[in-house]
Every structure is written in C-alpha cells, then in structure tokens.
Design a protein that fits this description.
6-stranded antiparallel β-sheet, alpha+beta
Length: about 400
C-alpha cells in the first residue's frame, strides 16, 4: 500500500481539526513557496509555518522500588550484547558514558518527524529537566553542558542538559539515502513512515535522516508511582494530578503473557495481575490503536512498536502508561522555529515492577544456577536483583550474593 504524502497528511490534519482556513493557508504556502505568520507570545515573535506539522514519540523508563517510587539504576547487561544504536549516532563524551550515568529515568528514543510539502528550514532546541541528553543524530549545533561530567553528575548541582539543531532542512525531494550499517539495530525501524526527509548541515557535510533522534538520563520523578502489593496487585498513585489517559499492566512468564488496560484511571487505583492468556496479535493491535488515539499516524505507531518489540514484551512485569502532554512539555521543553501548525507529542512511560513472581523466578534461577533466566530480564536484571537483596535480611542477602557469583 502506498503511504500518504505529506500534502495528504497535512490536509487530513486540517480536516480532522475542522480548520479549513488553515488548510487553505497550507495550500497557498505550497503554491507560493514560503509563508509564515508572526504571532506575539510573551513579547517574543514566534513564526508559525502553516505548511509544517511535527509528530514526536518517545519513552520514559524507570524501575519501581518497594515504595512504588523510582530507584536509582544503571542498565547492565547480563551477557555481551551488540550496541543498541548504530555507530554513526553521536554520544555525550563516549559511547559507554550513558551506561555508567546514574539516574532514575532513562529517556529512550524520542524521534521527531516532520511533514511538509515544500522545502522548509527550521531550528530545534530541547532540554531535559534534572537530566542530560546523552545521544543524538544528526549532528547538533550545540550541546550543554559543554564540559565532561562525572557518572554521578545528576545528583550534584547542575544545569539542565540541552541540545539544539540550528540548520535543519525538511524537503520532500531529499530521497532516502540514509546511513546504515550491516549490524542489526532497532534504530532503523523508526524510518518506516511517510515523514518528510530532512538534512542537517554539519562541519563535515550534510547528514540526512527521516527524523531527529535523541536520548537522555534524568533524576526526575515520573508522574506515577507503582507499588507492588504482597499479593502481586499494583497500587497506582498519580503524583501530579494531571489526568493519565490510560495504563496497561503487562506480565510475561516464559511463553505466556497477559495484559490489562485501564483508560482514564483514578488518581489512586489498584490493578490486579492479568491472566496469562494474551496473544501477540491482540496486544500489538491494542497498543497500536492506543497510540493512534493519542495523535500518532498509524505508521508512526507501528514504527514505535517495532522499535521496542523485544524490550517491551520480555520476561517480567511492567506498567505502561501514556504520559500527560503537559508533563512532557514541563520536563522536556522543546522549541521548533518556525513553529509547526500542528505538533503532536506522544510519550509512553514504562515502569519495571518487581513482583512476587519476578522475585521467585530470579531467586530460583540463582539457587539452581539456571543461567538462562537472568538474560531474559536484560538490562533490568541487576537493578531488580538489588531491590530483591535490599529487601532481604542479612543472612538471605549474603546467600543471594553467593548464588549470584557462584560458578555455573
């Protein structure tokens, strides 16, 4: 099936919103080549391009401690794994820095798509509350802080990290000559949309891509706390008072999994453990529909799900939720100049849960030297192990450590 063009998509945006005057301006912009509208905002002049639309998706990932609040953690693999990003992606300090930077929330794979029927030049600036931006592509014009920082820098006084792209050209005629390496990576899945290609001017020449990509780490608190009760149910508390559109509780044990969806949950709610009777088709379709309901195009929703296909649905228990737009804007303020006529931001929060079933699975695996189990929890195994051991009495804590380091 042929994907819709940028012109078709922008027309759909305007029609859906009932903004026919905006659509006429958009078509006039295409015909004349350039059109901007100056709008006063807090004594500043903000240029709005009625022929430009932007869509962004990303994730905030955390691990809930025994009290339901996020714990400090560093992702550590239980076995040697391929880098999750291609080599051309740029890093703050070094490719290994993010893996040692301590924080409570990992901001993972935000991508910003643009839609325009004509060539458009723009600039983008984004900062991360209580955090640092650690990876990006294409090349940025500026990154702050400009000097190296320590692995515990986020727990020391510091300014918010930020990056900016000052020379972005969005153009339908750029083609699809994007960088690619032989090694596999989920990074490439995000390209499978009909977004307008872009290029960024760098000291070494232009870099082309389908989106702007970045990642980061922060010590901020998510808008939800998720406390695991003794029977395995999850006690949710909305910490911000901002409405949460929906939550999804997921659990996987071996080849079986289940999930439970709650729309517009109360500020305080109890979610019971789902039965392990789910199917991959129903899960992916439900998630895709949920993402589309929040404003993403369907191919964007599919690209997001494909990007996280392995990690989201691995062994264990976790809570997914749609992050309120006002919360995203407050912790991740982003400016695009000229401003797009429509800007959608859909962020999924992921909270990893240490349930009784997870504790039993890991403790049994360690006691029996079953080395097949820890890798199933991926980069969350060691943080989960720390939570389990810290809850144990001294004797049990010592036994867990002995089991962890015992030879197979």
């Amino acid at each position: 099936m042929r994907l819709p063009t940028a012109e078709t998509r922008f027309a759909a945006i305007a029609a859906t919103a009932g903004c026919w005057p905006l659509l006429l301006l958009s078509l006039l912009a295409v015909a004349l080549g350039t059109l901007t509208i100056a709008i006063p905002l807090h004594s500043h002049q903000v240029l709005t391009d009625p022929g430009l639309a932007a869509h962004e998706w990303g994730t905030f990932t955390s691990i809930a401690g025994p009290d339901g609040l996020p714990v400090d953690w560093v992702p550590m693999q239980t076995q040697v794994a391929q880098p999750d990003l291609p080599g051309f992606v740029e890093h703050f300090r070094s490719a290994t820095y993010k893996g040692t930077l301590r924080g409570t929330v990992r901001m993972e794979t935000p991508v910003i798509y643009f839609y325009s029927a004509r060539e458009t030049k723009l600039s983008v600036y984004v900062s991360f509350s209580k955090g640092l931006i650690t990876e990006w592509y294409p090349h940025v014009s500026d990154v702050q802080p400009a000097t190296p920082v320590s692995e515990v820098a986020l727990y020391e006084p510091h300014d918010n990290g930020s990056i900016s792209w000052d020379s972005v050209t969005v153009a339908p005629n750029l083609g699809s000559d994007f960088p690619r390496e032989d090694a596999g990576s989920h990074y490439y899945a995000a390209r499978e949309t009909s977004a307008t290609p872009l290029s960024v001017k760098t000291p070494k020449g232009n870099q082309c891509e389908k989106f702007l990509f970045y990642r980061g780490v922060s010590t901020m608190s998510p808008p939800l706390s998720a406390k695991v009760l003794s029977r395995g149910a999850i006690e949710l508390d909305n910490l911000t008072g901002q409405p949460i559109p929906l939550v999804l509780l997921f659990e996987r044990r071996g080849d079986k999994f289940g999930y439970r969806i709650v729309t517009s949950p109360q500020d305080h709610a109890i979610l019971e453990t789902p039965s392990l009777t789910g199917t991959s088709d129903s899960l992916h379709q439900d998630l895709e529909d949920l993402l589309v309901s929040q404003g993403l195009f369907r191919d964007e929703a599919r690209a997001m799900l494909e990007t996280w296909r392995d990690s989201w649905f691995e062994e264990g228990s976790r809570l997914f939720y749609i992050v309120p737009r006002s919360f995203v804007d407050s912790v991740l303020p982003l400016s695009i100049q000229p401003a797009p006529a429509q800007f959608v931001r859909v962020f999924v929060g992921r909270i990893e849960l240490v349930t009784p079933a997870t504790e039993e699975s890991i403790e049994t695996a360690l006691a029996t030297h079953d080395r097949a189990i820890p890798p199933k929890y991926g980069r969350f195994f060691f943080p989960i192990f720390q939570i389990i051991s810290q809850k144990s009495d001294p004797e049990r804590h010592a036994q867990l450590l002995d089991d962890l380091f015992a030879a197979p």
